[in-house]
Every structure is written in structure tokens, then in C-alpha cells.
Amino acid sequence: MGGVGSILETLFHIVDVEYSWICDLKGKEVDEPQSKDYQSIQKVKALSDLYNKDLDGFLQSWTEDLENKILKVSWTDKEYKYGEVLRHVIVHEIHHIGQLSIWARDLNLQPVSANLIGRGL
Asked: Which Gene Ontology molecular-function terms are recorded (predicted)?
């Protein structure tokens, strides 16, 4: 399989990257979770649910004023616009949904829907 290595590792990666970037936007330090601690779909789902509760208020209060605010991160000298980062997070998840759909078809399973309508976004 391509991508991060496995379906479970890809799901963990999606959750981890989304949370890390949005915490950067919030100015919040993140204790990086270790994938070895999330070796079941139930644990990854619980982590996702926990993170979503934390991020929901920030995302619900998003305004146009945040769109061009500048984000500086510790690992590079580059600067990013908040809106650009938020759209990157969305595209990142869609990219991996495509991978998961291909893997599901390879396993003769129902592919994951890439339809974002009705997902409460």
C-alpha cells in the first residue's frame, strides 16, 4: 500500500496532522501523540473525537478577519496565511480519503465517500 503505510496509520496521520495545524492556528502547544499508542480503530476514533471537541469552537468562530492573518511555525522560516493553512488541512484529508477509497476497493470493500456534503463541515 502507498501513503503512510496502512489504513490505520493513515487514519491516525489524518487526525494528527489536522489537529497539529489547527492548534498552530490557535497558538496552542501540542503534545504529539505516538501512533504506537493508537493501534486500534477505536483508539484513533476516540482521539479524533477528543480533538474535534477541542477544535470545534475555534472553527465555528472563524471569521474573514482570520483569512490573511500570518502564521509562523517553529520548523521553518516560511510564513503561512491562516486561510491557506485551513484549506491545506481540508485538501490533506480529501487526498487521504482518495487513498482509503482505493485501498477499500482493493480489499473488495465499499469505498469511502469523498462527498463532504452532509458531514457537518
From this structure: metal ion binding
> Is 88 a known ligand-binding residue?
no
Selection from 20, 74, 27 nearest residue 47 by Cα: 20
Distance separating alpha carbons of residues 57 and 117, to the nearest angstrom: 20
* Annotated binding residue 92: yes
C-alpha to C-alpha distance for 16 and 47, rounded to whole angstroms? 9
How many CB atoms within 10 Å of residue 15?
21
AA letter at 82: Y
What CATH number does residue 90 fall under? 1.20.120.450
Count of domains for the chain: 1
**Beta carbons within 8 Å of 17's beta carbon, 6+ residues apart:** 89, 92
From first to last of the 121 residues of the chain, give the pLDDT tens digit.
556 788 999 999 999 999 999 999 999 988 899 999 999 999 999 999 999 999 999 999 999 999 999 999 988 999 999 999 999 999 999 899 889 999 989 999 998 777 778 777 6
13 is known to lie in a ligand binding site? yes
